[in-house]
Structure formats: C-alpha cells, structure tokens
Amino acid sequence: MIVVMQKGASQEQVDYMVERVEALGLKSHVIVGTERTVIAAIGEKREQMKESLESGPGVAEVLPILAPYKVASREVKPEPTEVIAGSLRVGAGSLGVIAGPCSVESEEQLIATAKAVKAAGATALRGGAFKPRTSPYSFQGMKEEGLKLLALAREETGLAIVTEVMACEDVDLVGKYADVLQVGARNMQNYRLLEAVGKSPRAILLKRGASATMEELLLAAEYILNEGNPNVMLCERGIRTFESHTRFTLPVATVPYLQAKTHLPVVIDPSHGTGHTYLVPAVAAAGIAAGADGIIVEVHPNPERAMSDGYQSMNFKQFEEMMVKCRRVAEAVDKVIR
Ligand code: PEP
Ligand code: MN
Question: Which atom of ligand 1 is found nearest the CA of 208?
C-alpha cells in the first residue's frame, strides 16, 4: 500500500505514520516528492489495515500498489528520479554520458581516455577493474590497482567513476574508489550482491541480465532500493536472441516501457548491445531519441589492442563524432548533458 500524505503534512505527521505502518508489521519507505510525501508500506496486507492507516493524521489517502515492484514503481513516485554521483547526473531531464574502456589496462591508457572523453563531452568515466569474463583464461582485470588508477583519473579530470563490483566482499573496496557501482548483466540476479550494494552509499548502475525480463530487472532494482539506497539507474545492454548479426539484441522499446513503469533513470549501452563499433553511434542516438536518461559506451585509445571488447570500442575520434550527433538528438528531446 501507499500512504499518501496531504500536501503540507508536517514531519511529525510523517514520522507518526511511519511508526503506525511499522507497528502493523509492515516495512516503511518514505519517498519525498516535489508534490507530496508518500510512505510505501510493504508487506502482507491484512483486514482493516487500510482503514486504520487512512484515519491517521495528515493522511490524504491509502492506495494499493499494483506493481510487484513497489518502491521502484511510478505508482509510488510519479516524478522521475535524478541520480547524481559526482560529475554524473542522470534522469529528470539530465542526460548522463558515461564513456571509457571496457577494462582498465594501464595509467597511460586510462588517463588518455579520461581526458579525451571529457574533452568530447562525457560526464563520467567507465572502466572495469574487476572483469566478469566468460573464460577463466581471459584477462580478469587489474583489481585494486585498476581502482587506484580510476581514482587518479578522477583527480586529473573531475569525472565521476563508474566501475563494476562482482562480489559482496568487494563492495566496500570498490566503493572506496568509485562514485557508481556497476552490477553487471551476469550478476543481475545475485540477490546477496544486490542487498550488499543496497547498503552502500554509492549510486548503482544495474545492468539487465541477458535473459532477464523487465519485471525481473525491476524486482532486482527493488532489492537495492529496499536496503535504503535510492540511487539506482537501470541499464538496457541487450538480450540474447536467435539473432547473430549483433552480439546481443538491444530493444529500444525498453526505454519508454521502463519509464512508464518506474521513476528510476534508464541508461542504454549500445557497445555491449551491438558488439560492433560501427553500429554504436546510431544505436546510442536511437536510445537518446527514445528518451534514455544516459548512455554508457566503450572508448579505447587503440581498440585493436584492447584487452577486452576492442571490437565494440570506439577510438577518440569516433567518440567525438558520436557526441556531436548525440548532442543534437538530445536537444531535440529536451535533454541536457550537464
Ligand atoms: C561491461 O560493462 O564491460 C560489462 C561486462 O557489461 P555487461 O555486464 O553488460 O556484460
Ligand atoms: Mn565490456
């Protein structure tokens, strides 16, 4: 249920209603919107609960939440959420541009990329230090050394850092260096990890699993929100289908669909979604045209030499050209890169 407070309800009234909700054995989640404050009351609904809450001080109405994901739903929070993490702003009209190498490989590679993407208009730097690789024989990432280089790149450029965390026991370590923790496609349904990042003060970029439905993605986000972390971005990075001309199949319809169902910002990843550099700029532009709140793309000084995902990475010039196009599309759909 959602307890909708009256416009201008006092903090005491909100606190009182939170106590009432919890006394009924429900979990409370306060969402302060620009229009109104609501308390999501989550748990098993029993007889008389609605009536009992409705009579509380400062309460406008008590409504059922129909969606299986509660805190993530638009029903609970009609206005869009803007996630702000250092230099990165995503959602509610802000278009975030996250760019950088698939993997952090060296100081030279990372700092050169950070400077180039910043100059071309990126608002955050991506780079994997812990890499989830299909084969155990592939490069697994520089781990903490890579995290240190990412922090150095932030010092040099001011760009917020987005990097993946693969295991519960690494959440604090990665959070020490990063502004945004990425939960990768392979871990979207690692519920212990979702709970662990839900306890982190860092923002989260949650990628869609390659075979996950929209509902599963939203319920995964719900795990994070439920732990008290409100700064969750959802990322469409393509799903596995029978098609083989692209690495994955990236459904652009996901963007407006998710935006209808949730207040959380939606980011599109055309690099993993297509798997081919030459397809990335057009699909990035398509995602923005469809209303995406952010894009995440792979950029490398020399893609042929990349230690991972080079075939889908842009070089600096290609990224710069893509940004010229994306800026124009963003303007057409009233999004600001800031
Ligand atoms: C990545 O961002 O480099 C990555 C491994 O992404 P995904 O989890 O979407 O495969
Ligand atoms: Mn990659």
Answer: 9
Distance 103 CA to ligand 2 centre (A): 7
pLDDT of residue 34: 82
pLDDT at residue 182, rounded to an integer = 99
Pocket residues for ligand 1 (CB within 6 Å)?
102, 128, 132, 184-186, 207, 237, 272
Q: C-alpha dihedral over 227, 140, 302, 164, to 10 degrees?
A: 0
Domain boundaries defined on the chain: 2-63, 83-332
Cβ atoms of residues 233 and 269 within 8 Å: no
What are 120-133's pLDDT values in tens digits?
999 999 999 999 99
Of all protein residues, the one whose alpha carbon is nearest to atom 4 of ligand 1 is 184
pLDDT digits (tens, 9 = 90+) for 127-164: 999 999 999 999 999 999 999 999 999 999 999 999 99
Give the class (CATH, top level) of 2-63. alpha beta
For 202-245, the pLDDT digits (tens) are: 999 999 999 999 999 999 999 999 999 999 999 999 999 999 99
Phi, psi of 90 (to 5 degrees): -135, 125
Q: How many CA atoms lie within 13 A of 144 on its CB side?
A: 5
Residue 125, beta-bridge partner list: 99, 161
Tokens of 77: 């929070």
Task: With beta carbons less than 8 A apart as the criterion, state whether 165 and 182 touch.
Answer: yes
Pull the structure tokens for residue 330. Answer: 């963003």
User: CA dihedral defined by 264, 266, 272, 275, rounded to 10 degrees?
Assistant: 160
Pick the residue whose CA is nearest to atom 3 on ligand 1: 102
CA 111 to ligand 1 center in whole angstroms: 21
Span from the CA of 179 to the centroid of ligand 1 (angstroms): 17
Fold of the domain built from segment(s) 83-332: TIM Barrel (3.20.20)
